[in-house]
């Protein structure tokens, strides 16, 4: 998990981030959420795929400044990755709960 993901390109209309790894491979991810924690910005991304398998899985990357450039990098610490994964899962659950409450309120009107 030590590969830095360089050259992030965000298509804001589609919510897609293209990342180039250190070997020059371009991987496309769907942007899900971002959160700042302990002064570091973390991103939850879902690998873009035509298959439904893995649709419930996401990747957490963190923003780092390397040689004066802001880049997304993998998280080397298992504890840090676990902590951020739990934070994102909690945020997703809160968002899902908010949407359900909003839908119920609209149905009552």
How do the helices and strands line up, and which of them pair or pack?
Layout: E1 4-11, E2 16-21, E3 26-37, E4 40-47, E5 59-66, E6 69-73, H1 78-108
Antiparallel strand pairs: 1-2, 1-6, 2-3, 3-4, 4-5, 5-6
Write up what this structure looks like:
The structure is a single chain. The chain is α+β, with helices and mostly antiparallel strands and 109 residues long. The protein has one domain (4-108). The chain is 28% helix and 43% strand. The chain has one helix at 78-108; strands at residues 4-11, 16-21, 26-37, 40-47, 59-66, 69-73. The protein has a 6-stranded antiparallel β-barrel with strand order 1-2-3-4-5-6. A hairpin with a 4-residue loop joins strand 1 (4-11) and strand 2 (16-21).
Instruction: Determine the structural class based on helices, strands and strand pairing.
Output: alpha+beta
Number of strands: 6
Low-pLDDT runs of 5+ residues are: 103-109
Mean pLDDT metric: 78
Question: What proportion strand?
Answer: 35-45%
Main beta sheet strand tally, sense and closure = 6 strands, antiparallel, barrel
- Bulk shape: globular
The number of distinct structural domains comes to 1
Integer-rounded radius of gyration: 16 Å
Count of alpha/pi helices: 1
- Helical coverage, percent range: 25-40%
N- and C-termini, Cα separation:
50 Å
